[in-house]
Amino acid sequence: MSQTTDQQRLEDKKDLNRFGYAQELLRSMGGFSNFAISFSVISILTGAVSLYGHGLLYGGPGMMGFGWPLVALFVILVAASMAELASAIPTAGALYHWASLLGNKRWGWYTAWINLIGQIGIVAGIDYSVALFADPLLASVFGYTSNDTTTLIVFAVILLSHGILNHVGIRLVAKFNDISAWYHIIIVAVLVVSLAFFTNSGLKPIDYIFQVGETFSDKPYAFAFLIGLLQAQWTFTGYDASAHTIEETINPRIRAPWGIFTSVAYSFVFGFIMLVFVTLSIQDASAAAGASNAFIYVITEALGGTFGNTILWLVTLAMWFCGLSSITSFSRMMYAFSRDKGMPFSKHWAQISRKFRTPAKAIWLAIILSFVLAAIDYILKLINPENTVGTIVFMTAISVVGLYVAYGIPMLLRLAAQAKGKFQPKHLGPWNLGKYGRFINVLSLLWIIFISVLMVIPPNQNAGYALIGMFVLLILMDFLYYNKHFEGPQAALKTSIKDILQREKELES
User: Fold this and answer.
1) Which residues form a coiled coil (predicted)?
2) What is Dmax (Cα atoms) for the chain?
3) What does 464-480 look like in DSSP terms, one character per residue?
């Protein structure tokens, strides 16, 4: 078995060399570990839980019965489209390299920066979610009052712990990711069984989960329901992590695509089961929707103080695992972009720790940028205390738009290249959608356009303003940095897409 694995590593190394890159990162992740990192970043115990109150407030119980499956259906199509490209172009640059090879280096550069914006939002959003749960739980233990300041401090400590562990090494993080995947499944099972058998007032009838027409907001229900989709849409983000760790995965053309696709599929199933039982255990939906943390309120009311708090601590640890994986993905994206001089001071962010073989400086830059985003929102709330949009909603809306626009660009370029005959079936990897690829790509793009608009209109306009500001800075970066420093990915410089994607012929020769 070891000899077979070593041979596969050699083939993977040769494959990566043909894209113009040396094997610098430690290639030790198996198929389950690759799946686990995306499954952990998606983390149904983070997105679906931290934004549970948002979904309930706007869409009522019907948000869980109809909103979750609706979003999951389209996200599975997006994931399949991304998986197909990951199989064709197996480099850690992922979206950035796909766009560069299918379009040109300017398309790649913008894709990388838009993805970076989304990555900042998702890392900040995940770890802030952990802080939102951990801070009140810690406050009840140590007797202090939880507020925005204490939450920000807990957030900083959580980021610090993730930075240290990612710095130490991919083997340790991979083990944590493997544990995380099983831990998520076990905790969902524990939560479901607890609610099924120990809920104080019993469960509501199953048809309650499909009850539509009830909103606790001041918006008309149809519009409120659409706003509430942020809960599910943000949960289903970050599954590009399997592609960003592709250079650390053995047999990546098969395992990384499956990691992308199955992480979304399993998250849908387990997440839906969890949301059904949580929603059926609600005793007072209006009170839950109005609580500062709806999920904590529902679980505490359903299971009681001590038992409920124990379950909440278990959920919080699952969120912590999620944040750990998201830092791994973010840092690999910056590492891949920086080795092509795509960022200012790129030589630093592309450095690999000799001792741990991890992109150490990129890891700590990811930590700093994520904290800065939360600090900006904290300062804005000090300036304008009447701002009612929660920090977590602000961060998650930014991450959804940034990530999904970055997901969509290479899909659009793939369709354009296919129409011109530059991207043909022979260029696909072993994991592909066959004759259905184009149709699925089109549906994926339509969904991305829809949710990108939806996530920045009122009441999420602050996220829209922040994104506009970031895009303005990006355009300035185009003039001040791009033309002088960015040469493009090595693959685009050394060969054409037609040459680089004919893996079978090259390996045989």
Assistant:
1) none
2) 69
3) HHHHHHHHHHHHHHIII
The answer, yes or no, to whether residue 267 has pLDDT greater than 80, is yes
Give me the sign of the Cα torsion angle 290, 229, 45, 205.
Answer: positive
Domain spanning 2-508 has what CATH number?
A: 1.20.1740.10
Each residue of 403-454: pLDDT tens digit? Answer: 999 999 999 999 999 999 888 888 888 999 999 999 999 999 999 999 999 9
Across the chain, how many H-helices and E-strands are there? 26, 0
The model's confidence at residue 3, banded by pLDDT at 50, 70 and 90, is: low
* Residue 142, amino acid: F
Q: Which residues contact 390 (CB under 8 A, 6 or more apart)?
A: 54
How many Cα atoms occupy the beta-carbon half-sphere of 89 within 13 Å? 28
> Per-residue pLDDT for 248 more than 90?
no
CA distance 427 to 253: 13
Confidence at residue 460, expressed as pLDDT on a 0 to 100 scale: 78
Minimal CA–CA distance to 391: which of 472, 466, 468, 296? Answer: 466
Q: What is the pLDDT of residue 213?
A: 93
Report residue 113 as tokens. 């920066």
Both tokens of 120, joined, read: 């900042």
Residue spans per domain, the chain: 2-508
pLDDT band at 500 (very low <50, low <70, confident <90, very high): very low
Q: How far apart are CA 392 and CA 132, in angstroms?
A: 9
Distance between CA atoms of 38 and 325, rounded to whole angstroms? Answer: 8
Residue type, 187: I
Q: How far apart are CA 52 and CA 458, in angstroms?
A: 19
Q: Identify the top-confidence range among 203-217, 325-339, 458-472.
A: 203-217
Contact assessment for residue 77 and residue 444, using Cβ atoms and an 8 Å cutoff: yes
Output DSSP code: residue 65.
I
Residue 501 has pLDDT above 50, yes or no: no
Q: Who contacts 40 (Cβ-Cβ below 8 Å, separation ≥6)?
A: 177, 180, 181, 184, 321, 322, 324, 325
Q: What is the predicted pLDDT for the residue at 387?
A: 64
CA 9 to each of CA 146, 158, 247: distance values in angstroms, whole numbers, following the listed order: 50, 34, 10
- The amino acid occupying position 305 is G
DSSP class of residue 29? Answer: B
Asked whether the beta carbons of 36 and 507 are under 8 A apart, the reply is no
At residue 266 the predicted structure's pLDDT band, cuts being 50, 70 and 90, is: very high
Give the whole-angstrom CA distance, residue 183 versus residue 55.
25
508: CB partners within 8 A, 6+ apart: none
